[in-house]
Amino acid sequence: MKNILLSLIFLGCCSVFSQESRISELQIEGLKRTKESFIRRLIKVKPQSIYDSLRIVTDIERLKRLPGIANAEAIITNNTNQDYNITYKIEENFTIIPGFSIATDNNDEFAYRVSLFEFNLLGRNQILGGFYQRDVFDSYGGYWEAPYLFTNKLGFGINYKNLVSQEPIFFEDNTVNYKFDSKAFEINLLYEFNFHNRAEIGLNIAKESYDFIDGDLPIGIPSRLDADKLIYRGEYEYNTIDLEYQYVSGFRSLLDVRFVTGGEGLLNDFEYFRRIGKNGNWANRLRFGYASNDSTPFAPFAVDNQLNIRGTGNTIDRGTASLVLNTEYRHTWYEKGWFVIQSNVFVDTGTWRNPGGDLEELVDGSTLRFYPGAGIRFIHKRIFNAVFRLDYGYGVGNDATNGITFGIGQFF
Predict the structure, then answer these.
(1) Whether the predicted pLDDT of 6 surpasses 70
(2) CA gap 161, 7 in Å, rounded
(3) How distant, in Å, are the alpha carbons of 240, 359, 387 from that of 248?
(4) Given Cys at both, which of 35, 236, 327, 356 links 295, Cβ 3.0 to 4.6 Å?
(5) Once rounded to an integer, what is the mean pLDDT over residues 266-278?
(6) Bridge partners for 242 per DSSP
(7) Is the pLDDT of residue 11 over 50?
(8) Rounded Cα–Cα distance for residues 323 and 285 (Å)
């Protein structure tokens, strides 16, 4: 009897001391436009759940990735009963963002694009917006995405674009200008497997046409092309990025695969960011693109100032495969309150496979472009994506160009 009593006392003591601490209260502070119900639905830490510091860290990183949130932190306090009170302090972004960009179009005239987007629609971090573009011709589009519409993992997106532009098509001895008209409607389902992995599947219905404008049209090249396309697309993202206002660290891989009636293609971005000291940030992007290698001048991957290599100009060449590396060092020189001035030095370099060519062209140097340069950034820390950038790229090698690139948001 004595042994049984001692055993019961021992087991009782073990039960008391091995009892796991719990979260007795979870408060969320600082919300103005974002719905608290949306935040509580999204985060993994819940009241009365077992205390897990890793879950708290993951929640904070998840919140900082939302367009509507500029920064977040967790304040943890012990209760007398060894449970925890947790407060998530949130600093919101201003998310109704107008956009304006200017460039030189392919007629060497003035081109511009204006847009207006809301990145925290209904206080649930849905994105709604549209744009108008004048680039020789008029273009417009609209966009809605709700990443957590159905559950805290499953969402939906829809967009429509009518893009019209003057496109230079390159031949061996000359360049011919076409009017490119694309009308496309796309729907997507978005699914988040966990904090680091998400995917999209979608369907794109497009009608495209090329109409000859001017130039010396080679024999056998049509003056008009029409195509109705049905595009099945899939996107997979692996993301370990951590954000602290203008500073970025971590790794991200974004794979976009498309099967088009009559061909296929993929595009994969590998991004790596690292903090350097207190004010520095090293940023890298390796982009690989591959499409059906048809021997056609209407190849899908373009060398372009705004897309991949700063300083080259607007659509100066095309290919059916591409390999592009962008690397830059960003340094914060001035920061006070919400305002930041940041400079950068960069190298943009890439190679292309000519239509009908061999993959060896990506590595043999025959299509290599090399553009070092420098730029400046003006950043508003509490407005989502409010990075006004100005870069100057200087080409090295035969037939190289140089020029200025202006835009909103970091180049990558």
Answers:
(1) no
(2) 74
(3) 10, 34, 14
(4) 356
(5) 95
(6) 249
(7) no
(8) 11
Amino acid at 313: G
* CA–CA separation, 350 and 308 (whole Å): 8
Burial class of residue 270 (count of CB atoms within 10 Å of its CB; 0-12, 13-18, 19+): middle
pLDDT, average across residues 201-206: 96
The answer to whether the beta carbons of residues 322 and 308 sit under 8 Å apart is yes
- The token duo for 297 is 């001048």
Question: SS3 of 46, please?
Answer: coil
Query: What token pair was written down for 66?
Result: 């939302």
Q: Output the pTM of the full model.
A: 0.85
Task: Please give the Cα distance from 290 to 306 (Å, whole number).
Answer: 19
CA-to-CA distance for 77 and 85, rounded, in angstroms? 5
Instruction: Name residue 39's beta-bridge partners.
Output: none
Query: Within 10 A of 160 (CB to CB), how many other CB atoms are there?
Result: 14
The model's pLDDT over 212-231, given as tens digits with 9 standing for 90+, comes to 998 888 888 888 989 899 99
Instruction: Compute how many other C-beta atoms are within 10 angstroms of the C-beta atom of residue 155.
Output: 20
Tokens of 150: 């159905």
